[in-house]
Amino acid sequence: MSMPTVDDAANVLADPTAYADEPRLHAALTALRARRPVARVEAPGYQPFWAITRHADVLAVERTDRVFTNWPRPVLMTARSDEMQAAIGIRTLIHMDDPQHRVVRAIAADWFSPRAMKAMGERIDELARHYVDRMRDTGGECDFVREVAVNYPLYVIMSLLGVPESDFPLMLKLTQELVGSDDDELKRATPSDETASALLEMFAYFKDLTDSRRANPTEDLASSIANATVDGEPLSDIDTMSYYAIIATAGHDTTTSSISGGLRALVEHPGQLRRLRADPGLMPRATEEIIRWVTPVKAFMRTAARDTVVGDVTIPEGDSLLLSYVSANRDEDAFKDPFRFDIEREPNKHVAFGFGVHFCLGAGLARMEIGKFFDRLLPRLRSIELAGEPELTATTFVGGLKHLPIRFELD
Fold first, then answer.
1. Distance CA 112, CA 118 (A)
2. Using an 8 Å Cβ cutoff, are 318 and 304 in contact?
3. Are 343 and 272 spatial neighbours (Cβ–Cβ below 8 Å)?
4. Signal peptide position in this chain (predicted)?
């Protein structure tokens, strides 16, 4: 990888197209880790921020959540989008800090607990088998992302929420428009404000769902959110809608990216594929390596609550920091040979799920979905190869493959 200048490398972090060009992205991040691991970024159209690219520094910021807050800027967006989301008043879990975050997170925590995951295991295994069957039924050639990978985790998370199956296509459209707003293929056809428009449509849908669950509670996550109280008071409409939105998007697109990116990695590393097929007991470690390799959540933001130091750089109070998970997960100081896909990697202290109080609520569910899908696929897989060029989503937040053409034989 050729080394770009430090300034060019830093600006890559605010360029959605860079995340669709992995050689360019990783050349830039490698340069930053080596030469300026805490880098000031002043990209056109964005409020300035500090890019944090080393694994150790990302962990240090995550550990000190009272110094580095999620509010008011948890995600890198254009300055215009920052203003629009503030005007809408969206407040998801990723916008909140303790103690509010801890109380609101608890509303859904039981649904993602180890006990809940154990209870869901059989159903997720059935769904994994069903979608491997659907893959077989494509006739031996398909776009794995569009025909398989997007549907399996969508079905899991929407069923958990209690969304009717007839509305799954609408939810797929809205979640992809939200996380794909920087991608020319995935974003809305409207000329501007794609993210706000998709978000408002999703909010309108979940407002109707909330009214229904408050009138007639059912045994699903939507009812738990709709009827939750904090300090004896129900959640506000905006907090309720925001809760649904983060569950729907985070529970779907990230797992889709991990499964499709994991399959691509196994196809491109046939020795690793043979090793995993020969020893299915490696699946837990392989799952962690897939998640590290793909890193579907590319970054989160934090804001300094006071003057403080990261690395050897003083961050003034009020300044924003971008925690580059995709960089931290390829840090040479944290991982041996980080650009090698290794299903037996151990230890594997990746930060793809974050760290500390904001560790991903649905991490256990994502791990289960990934592991069970490959548990069902690999014993039936006789052959597999790429049938075209994989294509990645343009993004600065959540993303992965949007197309993965493959040719295969399944029993």
1. 10
2. yes
3. yes
4. none
**Residue 212 CA: distances (Å) to CA of 157, 244, 282:** 19, 14, 44
CB contact burial 102-138 (16+ within 10 A = b; e otherwise):
eebbebbeebbeeeebeebeeebbebbbebbeebbee
Tell me the one-letter amino acid at 96. Answer: M
Q: What is the pLDDT of residues 219-273, one digit of tens each?
A: 999 999 999 999 999 999 889 988 998 998 888 899 999 999 999 999 999 999 9
pLDDT for the residue numbered 198: 80
DSSP 146: I
Residue 195, pLDDT score: 59
Break the chain into its structural domains and give their ranges.
Answer: 6-410
Enumerate residues 6+ apart whose C-beta is below 8 A from 398.
179, 249, 250, 253, 254, 257, 296, 297, 298
Query: Does residue 81 have a pLDDT over 90?
Result: no
d(C-alpha 356, C-alpha 323), whole Å: 13
Class of domain 6-410: mainly alpha
User: What single DSSP character describes residue 371?
Assistant: H
